[in-house]
Design goal:
The chain is α/β, with parallel strands linked by helices. About 65% of the residues lie in helices and about 10% in strands. Strands 6-9-10-3-11-12 form a six-stranded mixed beta sheet, with helices on both faces. About 35% of the residues are buried.
Length: about 575
């Protein structure tokens, strides 16, 4: 699974992969010749006292060392650039793919998990890829090459490798098998900790208001302790693996020196050959250790790759148009016998809903809590698809059009205002680049949203800073800036999802009175808990128990719809009779 994911990127960067392999091959070859040259210096130069041989072979050794350093360094550099590029690609692809998910799919995976997958998991894959280039390519080449060169030095001493190398491999293999499930658990617990932390930071005011600091602190401490426990378990296995492997290596080296000393005494080996054999022995064990380290890291990378692939290979349940229609000119939205059911729910939240939203009209939507008002808002811009029936654009099913094209025709003010960091101008315009902002239109939209009064008093006006989420503004100010952002867009349908609730009565009245001057002949949907906000609407849709309880003007509904009349009478101080 890790290879399948990485290959998606590397198949487009074959020259870099080939360059890395060739550079590593040259570097390993150069390092393998160094012990042999050192043996020749001792045997042919030091032992016989020939300084010319020492100087000549010494210069050759320096040349091989320089080649090794340059090629190894270049290989590492290209590996780092390639793996970093892959990390950037994975983050971009996950982010882009997640944008196509429906609201239900985003909720299923969860924002904290998406953050972990796009940061920590990508980092693990990136690190494993880089180490593969620098270690896994080098380790087998060095291991096989060192065995061959060791055999050239002494076949008799090479018999010790038949015991030592499998023993080291066995130790690493057993520990690796125990680490794999721990790595998967570790990533899951990182998800849990991120979820807990995000929940507590988002709800810090509620936690303080209900004096839940101790409860929430313990909840986070428990999540942190669980992550710590699995990290310690992994650390313990690492702590056992390396000393155990090193013990086998050093004991093998002692045996080589003891056995080699006897061979030299018998005249079956030379001093230089013994030293070269020890160097090759260390190279063999180094390659085994590097391979073992990779076998430890690869399982963790595989776990991360599995999580990333889950995002990349999750098909959006927002079915794309097979042959999409082009949207030309103004459009009109409508619902035709729409039914919406959530997974696992016994009853649909909306059923058999048919309503048109004619251009140039205002449609009010009212109903008790959980009557499907927000669901209605979500299906129009196709944040998720309906279970039955059709959302229509100019009489055609919404699925016949590209999602982005449909959403460009809708301007939505959500129930909970969220502002992106930047300036007021960039926030209202929906652009991050100041050069793309129509400053006159920003001021125009702010006036329509009744926000110009407080914005004009700021030192920097529309260039004033907006913190992430609009934390430096009050609830009412954020709501008005969100409304201005909606008015800035030239849309065919404006949706206000209970977004006037944060405004005082006078500000709301001024906004409603001037709304027609800002939306032109577009259709407007105003979802509200208060009948006073929709009393002047051209038509009012009353939802209750998943069904349409009424559709008409305020006066008609007061006569014909018991639910609307009940809601209105409960708010009699707010409704104009």
């Amino acid at each position: 699974m890790l290879f399948r994911l990485v290959w998606r990127y590397l198949r487009h960067h074959i020259p870099a992969v080939v360059a890395i392999i060739l550079l590593q091959l040259i570097a390993v070859a150069a390092s393998l010749f160094l012990p042999d040259l050192n043996a020749r210096i001792i045997n042919e130069g030091v032992v016989v006292g020939d300084t010319n041989v020492i100087w000549r072979l010494g210069v050759i050794m320096l040349g091989f060392s320089a080649v090794q350093a340059v090629t190894a360094g270049a290989g590492v550099l290209i590996s780092a650039v390639t793996s970093m590029g892959m990390g950037r690609w994975l983050r971009r692809e996950q982010f882009k793919h997640a944008q196509s998910f429906s609201t239900a799919q985003l909720s299923h995976i969860g924002p904290p998990s998406l953050i972990t997958r796009n940061t920590n998991d990508v980092q693990q894959i990136q690190m494993v890829t880089m180490m593969t280039f620098t270690i896994m390519v080098m380790a087998p080449l060095m291991g096989v090459g060192a065995v061959i060169m060791a055999l050239r030095q002494s076949v008799q001493m090479s018999g010790l490798l038949l015991v030592a190398v499998p023993l080291v491999a066995l130790v690493i293999g057993v520990i690796m098998a125990r680490m794999h499930p721990l790595f998967k658990t570790q990533q899951e617990r990182i998800d849990r900790m991120n979820t807990t932390l995000r929940e507590q930071l988002s709800g810090v005011r509620v936690i303080r208001a209900f004096v839940r600091q101790d409860t929430e602190r313990k909840k986070y401490q428990d999540a942190n302790a669980d992550l710590r426990d699995v990290a310690i378990a992994i650390g313990k296995l690492f702590a056992v693996m390396f000393p155990a492997a090193q013990f086998i290596i050093w004991m093998t080296q002692v045996a080589v020196i003891w056995y080699g000393g006897h061979l030299i005494e018998q005249g079956s080996a030379e001093v230089g050959s013994l030293i070269a054999f020890i160097n090759y022995l260390m190279q063999i064990f180094m390659s085994v250790m590097m391979a073992g380290f990779m076998f430890v890291m690869v399982p963790r990378g595989s776990v991360s790759a599995e999580r990333v692939l889950e995002v990349l290979e999750t098909e959006s349940d927002l079915e794309p148009a097979a042959q999409h229609r082009e949207i030309t000119g103004p459009v009109e939205f409508s619902l035709n016998d729409v039914t919406v059911s959530y997974p696992g729910a016994r009853e649909p939240v909306l059923q058999n809903l048919s309503v048109k939203f004619p251009r140039g009209t205002i449609t009010g939507v009212v109903g008790p809590t959980a009557s499907g008002k927000s669901t209605l808002v979500n299906i129009l811009p196709r944040l998720f698809d309906v279970s039955e029936g059709e959302v229509r654009v100019d009489g055609h099913p919404i699925k016949d059009f590209e999602i982005d094209e449909v959403r460009r025709r809708i301007s939505l003010v959500p129930q909970k205002a969220y502002l992106f960091s930047g300036t007021i101008a960039s926030t209202v315009a929906g652009h991050f680049a100041q050069a793309d902002v129509d400053r006159e239109r920003v001021e125009w939209a702010l006036k329509g949203a009744q926000a110009w009064e407080f914005v004009s008093k700021l030192d920097d006006g529309i260039d004033s800073e907006v913190e992430a989420g609009g934390q430096n503004f009050s609830g009412g100010q954020k709501q008005r800036l969100a409304i201005a952002r909606a008015l800035y867009r030239d849309a065919d349908l404006y949706i206000f999802d209970d977004s006037l609730s944060a405004l005082d009565a006078q500000t709301e009245q001024r906004l409603r009175d001037g709304l027609s001057n800002y939306v032109g002949d577009a259709a407007v949907i105003v979802v509200s808990q208060k009948t006073s906000s929709i009393v002047d609407a051209d038509q009012i849709l009353v939802l209750g128990e998943g069904d349409v309880q009424g559709l008409g003007t305020h006066e008609e509904l007061m006569q014909n719809c018991w639910l609307y009349r009940e809601i209105a009478e409960s708010q009699s101080g707010e409704v104009r009779q």
